[in-house]
Amino acid sequence: MSNYKLYLAPMEDVTDPAFRLLCKRYGADRVYTEFVNADALVRDVESTVRKLRISDAERPVAIQIYGREAGPMADAARIVEEAQPDFIDINFGCPVKKVAGKGAGAGLLRDVPKMLAITRAVVNAVHLPVTAKTRLGWTHDELYLPDGTPFIVNLAEALQDCGIQELAIHGRTRAQMYTGEADWTLIGAVKNNPRMHIPIIGNGDVTTPERARECFERYGVDAIMVGRGTFGCPWLFAEMKEAFIPDFEATQLHGIRIPRTMAEKVEVLKEHVSRSIEWIGDERKGIIHSRRHFANSPVFKGLFDFKQTRIALLRADTRDEVFQLMDYIVEHWGE
User: Fold this and answer.
1) What is the pLDDT of residue 276?
2) Which whole number is the average pLDDT over 128-146?
3) DSSP states of 140-194
4) CB 148 within 8 A of CB 112
5) pLDDT at residue 335 greater than cutoff 80
6) Which of 15, 90, 219, 317 is the most buried (most CB within 10 A)?
7) Which residues make Cβ contacts (< 8 Å) with residue 151, sequence separation at least 6?
């Protein structure tokens, strides 16, 4: 299992440089940027162009783009190529209404010919490897074709024929959004299709080392993409790899220790807050931006009589306030 790969999934308002670098430190084999709107990029919208900022410390890094028309997607891909990522990823999986409802992201699952046209246009526009991420289908009723073939198996072959170098599959339909359980059996069906020769990346509900091991062993995927389980827990990659690789901490983290105690984990959360403030350039906005991480961190889950302290933590809007509350939590609830 020493060759298995773990990737940080692209997530809007989550996978900014501050978080990507922390995940990279703790063993993520590849990181992805937030979604980049192709139309906004072509129009040179500052907030969108800013998402193209990557650093060598993040490599290998993929920049993900989304859109609903082939022309702007190809133009956006050329702009992205100038930022020199290692991969350009196409988002065919985002289920949210403002994306899918406008015919982009997972919305293209309802128009496969257009999805394939976009893929060919992007592949032909750039020299970098192009990858894609999608879902099992639009609804549960559309998971299988009339001949019994899984929709995603057929789609994966078609995307491969368009020239993508890898395919990531989230094991849910668009209709499921993020509810219910991810169906890895259909991801496995794609991986085990003898006509597939590109790497297949599985995604969905992998939040523990045990589940990561199960998905690798049972479904044979080439990599696992970890998403919401990383919130407030960038060291999750290291915990997963430690379960597979002997002496992982000593041999592959270059002297960086996996945080074990609450105090050690809180120090990582503090660093993330500081990095977010530095990235955004505004203390209050940086704290608000990083709030979803410490709000959802497993570090603070299940603590007895924690409600009022949690409310105070989520209302704090200066770095000193946040850090003082975190220190208080360690003092009163820590090991």
Assistant:
1) 96
2) 97
3) GGGSB-TTS-BHHHHHHHHHHHHT-SEEEEESS-TTTTT-S---HHHHHHHHT-T
4) no
5) no
6) 90
7) 136, 137, 142, 143, 144, 145
Give the tokens for residue 270. 């503090």
Distance CA 126, CA 296 (A): 38
Tens digit of each residue's pLDDT (9 = 90 or more) over 180-215: 999 999 999 999 999 999 999 999 999 999 999 999
Q: How far is CA 288 from the centre of its chain?
A: 20
C-alpha of 39 from chain center: 22
Q: Which candidate in 94, 162, 215, 233 is catalytic?
A: 94
Q: Going by C-beta distance under 8 Å and a sequence separation of 6 or more, which residues neighbour residue 312? A: 325
| CA–CA distance, 227 with 171 (Å, rounded to integer) | 12
Residue 293 near residue 19 (C-beta atoms within 8 A) = yes
**One-letter identity of residue 194:** P
Contact yes or no for 87/130 (Cβ under 8 A): yes
Is there a contact between 182 and 152 (Cβ–Cβ < 8 Å)? Answer: no
- The residues facing 120 across adjacent strands are none
**Does residue 162 have an active-site annotation?**
no
Q: Is residue 302 classed exposed, middle or buried when 0-12, 13-18 and 19+ CB atoms within 10 A define those classes?
A: exposed
282, two tokens: 């505004």
Q: Backbone phi, then psi, for 141, in 5-degree steps?
A: -70, -15
Please tell me the predicted confidence (pLDDT) of residue 1.
43
